[in-house]
Structure formats: structure tokens, C-alpha cells
Amino acid sequence: MGLKNKINREVDALAQKTGCNPLEILFHFASGNSVALGMTLAITPDQRLQAASQAAKYVYPQRRAIEVNADIEYFSEKEEEEIEAIKAEFKRLKEDS
């Protein structure tokens, strides 16, 4: 297994050993549940917003911008020629009238 998996296992073991689940703490902050955290003071809206922002990374996938490099052809070459012929015909009719 790779280094990342080893680190994850070590972190999981430490969390179990200490009884500390950082993600659970983060969610308690986000929900404003100070009682579950053993706090006597209320969690401020700013703290809740910051915790919710951090917790969202674990709940929802992060969106990434992607670049599309493609030549999109809407019409075939034959269709393009037909369109150009129709345009030329309209132009000619307009000039004749």
C-alpha cells in the first residue's frame, strides 16, 4: 500500500485511540451544537459558517473547471455549401427587388 494509505491508517488509529473524531467536531460546530462539544458558550455564526464551509468538502464533491478543446461542426460540409447557396440566392433576390 502507498504512503497515503499508511498515513490514513495511522490517523484513523490515533482518532480511535484518543476518541477524537475531527470531522464529528466540525459537524457539531457547523450545526451550532455546543452542548455535544462540552462547551458552555454558544457557537457564533462566523464559527458555524467557517465549520460548514470546511465540512462541505467532505459531503459534496468539489467542482473543477474543465477546458474543452474541440472543433465542433454543426453542419456537414455539404450542408454548409447548401446554406451558402441559399444565402447567395436570398442576397441576389434582395438586390433584384
In short:
With 97 residues, this protein is mainly α. It has four helices and no strands.
* Structural class by helix and strand composition: mainly alpha
For the secondary structure, the number of strands is: 0
Number of helical segments?
A: 4
Helix content: 55-70%
**Secondary-structure element series:** HHHH
What summary fits the major beta sheet? Answer: none
Mean pLDDT: 87
Rg over alpha carbons: 31 Å
Instruction: Name the beta content range.
Output: under 5%
Low-confidence stretches: none
Distance between the termini: 80 Å
Q: What is the global morphology?
A: elongated
Q: Oligomeric form of this entry?
A: single chain
Task: Explain what this protein looks like in three dimensions.
With 97 residues, the protein is mainly α. The chain has a domain at 3-59. Helix content is 63%, strand content 0%. It is built from four helices and no strands. The protein has helices at 3-18, 22-31, 45-59, 77-96. Helix 2 (22-31) packs across helix 3 (45-59). The longest helix is centred in the last third of the chain and has 20 residues, at 77-96. The mean pLDDT is 87.
